[in-house]
Amino acid sequence: MSEAGFVDPVLLKQVKVGRDYVAAKYGFRNHWYPVLLSDELDEASPQTAQLCGERILLNRVDGVAYAIKDQCVHKGVPFSKKLECYSKGTVTCWYHGFTYRFSDGLLVGIVGMPHSNVIGRRHVKSYSVVERKGVIFVFVGDEGVEPPPLEHDVPPGFLDEGVAVRGRRQEVAANWRIGCENGFDSTHIFIHKNSRLIKDGDLALPLGLVPTGKESYRVEEDEGGPKGVYDIFSPETVMPVFEGKIGDETVLMGAVHGKNMLPHTISMWLPCALRVDPWPAPHLTQFEWYVPIDGERHTYFQFIATKATTGAEEQAFEREYRDKWIPSALDGFNKDDVWAREASQAFYADDSGWLREQLFEADANIVKWRRLAAKHHRGLQTPQHIL
Amino acid sequence: MSEAGFVDPVLLKQVKVGRDYVAAKYGFRNHWYPVLLSDELDEASPQTAQLCGERILLNRVDGVAYAIKDQCVHKGVPFSKKLECYSKGTVTCWYHGFTYRFSDGLLVGIVGMPHSNVIGRRHVKSYSVVERKGVIFVFVGDEGVEPPPLEHDVPPGFLDEGVAVRGRRQEVAANWRIGCENGFDSTHIFIHKNSRLIKDGDLALPLGLVPTGKESYRVEEDEGGPKGVYDIFSPETVMPVFEGKIGDETVLMGAVHGKNMLPHTISMWLPCALRVDPWPAPHLTQFEWYVPIDGERHTYFQFIATKATTGAEEQAFEREYRDKWIPSALDGFNKDDVWAREASQAFYADDSGWLREQLFEADANIVKWRRLAAKHHRGLQTPQHIL
Amino acid sequence: MSEAGFVDPVLLKQVKVGRDYVAAKYGFRNHWYPVLLSDELDEASPQTAQLCGERILLNRVDGVAYAIKDQCVHKGVPFSKKLECYSKGTVTCWYHGFTYRFSDGLLVGIVGMPHSNVIGRRHVKSYSVVERKGVIFVFVGDEGVEPPPLEHDVPPGFLDEGVAVRGRRQEVAANWRIGCENGFDSTHIFIHKNSRLIKDGDLALPLGLVPTGKESYRVEEDEGGPKGVYDIFSPETVMPVFEGKIGDETVLMGAVHGKNMLPHTISMWLPCALRVDPWPAPHLTQFEWYVPIDGERHTYFQFIATKATTGAEEQAFEREYRDKWIPSALDGFNKDDVWAREASQAFYADDSGWLREQLFEADANIVKWRRLAAKHHRGLQTPQHIL
After folding, report:
1. Global pTM?
2. How far apart, in whole angstroms, are the C-alpha atoms of residue B90 and residue A71?
3. Does residue C38 form part of some domain?
4. B interface with A, Cβ–Cβ below 8 Å
5. Could you give the percent of chain B with pLDDT greater than 90?
6. CB within 8 Å: A343 and C81
7. Domain check: are A133 and A154 in the same one?
8. d(Cα C136, Cα C38) in Å, to the nearest integer?
9. Are residues C114 and C162 in the same domain?
10. What is the CATH number of the domain that holds A253?
11. Is the ipTM value over 0.90, yes or no?
12. Do B129 and B174 belong together in one domain?
């Protein structure tokens, strides 16, 4: 019923670029989102998650992951408030004994009312689930919509064979779009000027990147594939600035001496995924998702991927990921990003920030991302969807 | 001024059954409500309470209980923020010395402005109060409405001569209607399946009750008496289910072996009182009230009553109440109800739950209660009443 | 965008007296307000403040105080979240290196984007600042409005030569108008009946003041000077009441025996300043400001002033202020006022209190203040101003 927390329609009318993107405070519908890591979901151990404002309950049954809405259809209480499971693959509501199947949400019984008319007739919403590369993806979709292949909602490379992926997730107190724009923003490298990754990753990290004027973007919008925008960093498209000046005075120096000038491209993909390649080292690619929890928070997924064809290679990468890249990159570097997103939230919280912000030349890639998202998304999350 | 916290009129129009009941988020006006136990109010010791959103100040003067609105008419501050009483039966506002009589709310003086024109002309709202069975009842009524007899707003039996009553109260973080419906709901016995009262009360407690098809409700709506709905439990009307099944599999067993199959009736009464008879033992009756505090909380009164004609009988009952029924029934059994109500609050908090819930056969008594309350209540509490 | 926290226009239409005053929940625009004490702002040490809902950043550069809006124009983050200053008189936004001059708010550089088109073209809002008597005043004004002389917004006497001023500030959880009306209210002396200042200041403090019927107000509204209302206390205009009665019974006694019957006048000045003269002793004057922080809080400035022409006199006053008047008057007496304002806030919080209050004879001076403020203010703070 309530529209509280959604974007004011009067404000929305004043948005000139990417209106649907601004409207998508709770995310886009009919897309795949990562929701848990595979090793977070054990057999017969239901877990909760919140996704685009929807509260779901996941479980693994005979090895297969399922997701249903975490709300009994009878009186609306959450199953997860007091989990009761009496048979394989079902959850029983703690209040009146309504029992639902995880695989399709069907009401298969009512403990204490064995012959009720509603058994076999009612169902709780169930979600399509797929599991790839150690990640559980859930499709937040409308009734009757056939989910597209997962590949259409994941950046290129992530699902490739011969690629090993390791990652983690955390909650961030900022809208998901602030997450996207912080990740895809190239000028914000300014906040990383003292990062430990500069030394650990042997980086040459400038304070800024000045466009040369030559087109440095590439929009991917082919049917039958993921939709995204590339921002390309090469000597032809951008000039790195290592000497920070105010007027004529040099006030700061970037990190000049490392041997790795990375990344070569950053790209942003529907529904909310980033690819940084290569990063944080020449043989690695970083992938990130900024999955809407609600209008004010997102789940920040960080993945590092590399080529690995043998078990030994994968194990070596596992050690490298854990011992080097978690502390240096995922913590040491990206903690500044998490901080910056949370510091940006207040300005955009009532959505007036989308009208009050004053973009500049270096934000051109963000504008392209907003247009692409507004054009190719498959639906808007509305107040009705999160009840 | 503000309608915040009240039911959205657009939503209300979509309610098909018991619309006024759904509208009564803050309770019904022109009814009697229990507010304190008699032994909570000492002579000349003002106590505060909140009731249907209204904040009141009670005091006992020469043994008689009185109640006035806890808000000076001058600048609106609560007397209770800093109680100052300088003469018998009055309270003086700590801010400007406005002094009101508890018995009728009249402004009888202003300390420091002895000849003000407003003395004897203004008054703070005063409430009718009666005290019976160790309980202080307050009438939340409109100006000029003559309160009906207390008997019209209390379940049968509670006020009878030769009946001893003991009870207590606590605050519960759920709307008062959720309290009523949890108490009157017969299928929810499922949540009590592991209660210590099963053993302490020697109960045969099923997991559910299947209606036989024979009418098991009785509506009381005679003029000149309390208005309520009985749900009758007898071999003719319901079949207890002790064997909990999902499909063909028996997954749970109710408590079969106790000798007491209780209660015989549960009934729900305007404005917000429940009667469970007999309960928690064959010689006892339990009475409950779910008194609105505001839109999100209620005061839960629990009483146990028994026949007692002599002082010795009453003392013996007092010991039994304290040593056995408080720990076993009021705590041990009803704590599950308190928990369940608080767990249900989120779904109904914005009132959309009244449209989204999906009732089933066993909720027929609750539907009858909603109709009765919507038909026989004496007024709706509105935003203006709680300023 | 959001009007949340501002006065409901429907309610406002029902206000009969001083409508613009009731509308000014966040204060009046185009006025001077005290914001910090001079010794709270050191050279090159930016400090934040909030004023009429606007968040500002102050700094002292070569001894001169400046103030700019604490929000980067690019993406709206607060500079103060992580202060970075790389050259004299500038602040650099921690996010993308946008660098602004404190003196006029101009964007003078972007570290990492040295040739951006927006440099020298954009600016953050800057505020006029003056510093007098050890107090930093900021003008909360519209673009293009030339600030009037500070003297027009300060009570008579405060800025005089040969006057020494000492003071302090604290945050109070009440709207600024509640602060004004508590300070200017003469009947509220009732709350001070047990104040330690009665003994420390040798006061004869009555419980109330009864108007004799002779006009005791003087309205100052000359062009070219401050606008205010005097309430005059003299044997001709008011009769002090030392004996507090309810009916014929004497229930309380005021402080009769002190030799100082103070003050002689209390006066209230635009935008939000009080003058109590003499107070708390015959050779002193107390000045107070109730500066809006937002709609629910104000900064309470307390100053005591006295004649002092030599450094020795000023030093002696400094000791007297610190050792006697802080504990006795600013703490001991005014803590009751702070408490009373916070206790009044709930009633006026949704602004319905302005319609529900029931004033009486002794509130005539407050009504005059409301009329004066509504007539002579220079603008209303609106939701757009606080984004």
Report:
1. 0.96
2. 52
3. no
4. 8, 10-11, 185, 187-191, 206-210, 241, 244-247, 249, 251-252, 254, 340, 343-344, 346-348, 350-353, 355-362
5. 94
6. yes
7. no
8. 6
9. no
10. 3.90.380.10
11. yes
12. no
